[in-house]
Design goal:
Layout lengths: L1 H26 L8 H9 L7 E5 L1 H4 L14 E5 L5 H11 L7 E4 L3 H4 L8 H17 L3 E6 L15 H17 L3 E4 L24 H15 L2
Parallel strand pairs: 1-2, 1-3, 3-4, 4-5
Helix pairs in contact: 4-6, 6-7
């Protein structure tokens, strides 16, 4: 009986800890706390008229390491958070982009939505969130640069999802919206996609995140677009 009681107590404790962790995550769903301190420093510093904020997920977040680190450019600000969906990015957009008063914002978002990271979502909803971010930026006189999603034919954390067709379609919608609103587009997809609609092993170790060679292609595309 004592053993059974201990097991039950342990189970309750584990459930309570899991519940607390989950509640903490829900409490700050968009992760507003992540860049709060850095944002405060940038806001209080001398204004940078050439500032460019990169809004995104892990593909953006992990770009600040290695030889292809694009954020060695002091005007470029990394606001990528691993695992985030467009819903989360939209909620933190004012704090992590608008408040920094950048000249431009580069938005790369949507693949984690397709992966179902925060639940099932339609391409229409994903595109709506991207449009909302663009509209908020334009209303604050921030130039918008949209990015086509990188190709992926699988997600290692969501193996049942086959993302290639959805990514291709979302990229069509991004390009269409950008053309209709006279926005620049960075096309990461075309020079990186293989015959399966995914990332080749030469450009990625896991089929989703670019390696140094992948980031090299991306860096060249960004610099060409931003400085044009």
């Amino acid at each position: 009986m004592k053993l059974r009681a201990s097991i039950i107590s342990l189970g309750i404790l584990s459930f309570a800890c899991f519940g607390a962790a989950q509640a903490e995550e829900i409490k700050d769903f968009p992760n507003l706390a992540r860049f709060q301190a850095e944002n405060t420093q940038l806001i209080s510093a001398k204004p940078d008229k050439a500032r460019v904020v990169f809004m995104g997920d892990s593909i953006t977040q992990f770009w600040d390491t290695g030889a292809q680190n694009i954020f060695t450019n002091q005007h470029f600000i990394n606001r990528g958070i691993s695992g985030q969906t467009t819903s989360q990015m939209l909620l933190r957009f004012r704090q992590d982009v608008v408040a920094l008063k950048p000249q431009k914002v580069v938005i790369l978002a949507g693949t984690n939505d397709i992966a179902g990271n925060t639940g099932p979502v339609s391409l229409e909803t994903i595109m709506g969130n991207i449009k909302s971010m663009a509209e908020i930026a334009k209303a604050n006189k921030i130039e918008v640069v949209l990015c086509k999603l990188l190709p992926a034919d699988h997600y290692y954390w969501s193996p049942d999802i086959k993302p290639a067709p959805q990514i291709a379609q979302l990229n069509i919608e991004i390009a269409k919206y950008a053309k209709a609103n006279n926005l620049k587009v960075i096309d990461y997809y075309t020079p990186m996609v293989n015959e399966k609609g995914g990332l080749p092993t030469t450009l990625s170790g896991d089929g989703v995140h670019p390696n140094a060679e992948g980031y090299k292609i991306m860096k060249a595309l960004v610099e060409r677009t931003i400085t044009k």
